[in-house]
Amino acid sequence: MSSDGVAQPLTARRSGPLTGTVRPPGDKSISHRALILGALAVGETTVDGLLEGGDILSTAAAMRAFGATVTQAGPGDWRVSGLGVGGLLEPEGVVDYGNAGTGVRLALGVAGSHAFATTFTGDASLVKRPMGRVFDPLRRMGVQVIARSGDRLPATVRGPDTLVPIEYRVPVPSAQVKSAVLLAALNSGGVTTVIEPVATRDHTERMLAAFGAAIEVEDAETGRTIRIEGGRDLKPQSITVPGDPSSAAFPLVAALLVEGSDVTIENVLLNPTRTGLIETLLEMGADITIANKRGVGGEDVGDIRVKASRLKGVTVPASRAPFMIDEYPVLAVAAAFAEGDTLMEGIGEMRVKESDRIAAVVAGLQANGVSVEDTADSMLVHGATGVAGGGTVTTHLDHRIAMSFVVLGLASRDPVTLDDALPIATSFPEFRDMMTGLGADLSDG
Ligand code: S3P
Questions:
Q1: How far is the centre of ligand 1, averaged over its atoms, from the C-alpha of 103 (Å)?
Q2: 326 Cα: distance to centroid of ligand 1 (angstroms)
């Protein structure tokens, strides 16, 4: 989604039972990493099941700008010919990352480990987001950074001749920051240590190990320590990308809320750092079963069957936030239909996502008759047996806000309208067709 696209309003109406079997698109986190590590390996990496959403296409374009060959052989079937660790080339122009926060933060780590200048920019959402969290450790590694005030994009990074290995304690729980440091460290002359007081999604560590990086992970009560030694070549891999649990969340919650629904969502990534929403919904009384659990490319995968359920409010502890940070908007929608209150604690990071997601959720729920309160880092949704709907929701260039309020509209009394559904294509281009195929009543305008 670019900031100058013409807005596409969309209306979601109360629907009959949702039924059928669907496969969510490839996981966004894994898709970014597959293209980036492919570009840093010498030889051809194949990627099957790649997410073909706007965010990943931004990473594909960026890796091409750095000199890698990135081609689509068929739907979801991609090839990357990399140039090796430290072997990327200076991009000719500004690298525009569109809406993709994860993509640009990972790419900043990669670009900062090369002794040339790269300038990054993004859309109206991305240029508001904090980049200092990545610039700080990169500066300590010797990277020069020139950024707009508040350490925001557009920004230019230039790596030193020899990157300094560091020991870095990640101050906010962020897989993006951790990953930027690990990716930069690949091209340093020694061992970099990253300490995460709170463990976050670990796809970078898993994939780096698969590509042959010298990486060690130590889990302890006090957090996770990751050590990576620079200067080692990466070997190209064949990667199969499992379905994205953060995308599966939308048909999942829709099926819980729309009376009489029975939906199976196949091939969903069930990495334990990504399953906080399922855990929470089970606590709320959701009828969710997981079948066919298997390993795919070093990750847990399974099929999720979900039936319409009466939910009850719960308190979601702050400790769970890193494992479901992108799922709170749709959890808040589920909570609106639950019996009793749902309190979500320790969710301040939501305020610096594609939009201020706490503000966007509160405004969207209130516009549709739901009672909700927020603090700087929490949200309290007062559930009710029915939700009025009838409101228009501002999506703020935020795909997950858009999809969450489509789900609200499918179960509320009156229709819910989005001011702009275009951002959905950043992570889930087939969302509308998939939901309509299950029986959702969606229309333009
Ligand atoms: C992601 C990490 C999370 C998440 C984002 C994807 C990743 O961000 O919100 O959608 O792929 O590393 P933070 O690491 O900033 O919490």
A1: 10
A2: 8
- The best mutation among 30, 35, 131, 200 to test binding of ligand 1, ranked by most ligand atoms within 8 Å of the C-beta, falls on 200
Measured CA distances, 4 to 7, 122, 314, 397, 402 (Å): 9, 12, 40, 11, 17
CA 341/CA 314 separation, integer angstroms: 7
Report d(CA 115, CA 159) in Å as an integer: 4
Q: Where are the beta strands (DSSP E) in 329-396?
A: 341-345, 371-375, 378-382, 392-393
117-142, pLDDT tens digit by residue?
999 999 999 999 999 999 999 999 99
Three-state DSSP class for 434?
helix
Q: How far apart are CA 276 and CA 269, in angstroms?
A: 12
Do 425 and 443 meet the contact criterion of CB atoms below 8 Å apart? no
Neighbours of 21 (CB within 10 A): 12
Distances (CA, A) of 82 to 191, 233, 427: 23, 11, 25
Tell whether ligand 1 has an atom less than 6 A from the beta carbon of residue 204. no
What predicted TM-score, i.e. pTM, was given to this entire model?
A: 0.98
| Structure token pair of residue 161 | 């001749």
Q: Residue 2 — very low, low, confident or very high, per pLDDT cuts 50/70/90?
A: very low
Strand, coil or helix: 381: strand
Instruction: Tell me which residue has tokens 């909570």.
Output: 335
Give the span between the Cα atoms of 429 and 435, in whole angstroms: 11
3-state secondary structure of 117: strand
CB neighbours of 49 closer than 8 A, spacing ≥ 6?
Answer: 26, 76, 240, 241, 242, 243
Q: Is the peptide bond before 154 cis (omega within 30 degrees of 0)?
A: yes
The DSSP output letter for 243 is B
- Classify 40 as helix, strand or coil: helix
> DSSP letter at 382?
E
Does residue 393 sit in helix, strand or coil? strand
Task: Tell me the per-residue pLDDT of 398-426, one tens digit each, with 9 for 90 and over.
Answer: 999 999 999 999 999 999 999 999 999 99
Concatenate the DSSP letters of all residues of 401-417 into one string: HHHHHHHHHHHSSB-EE
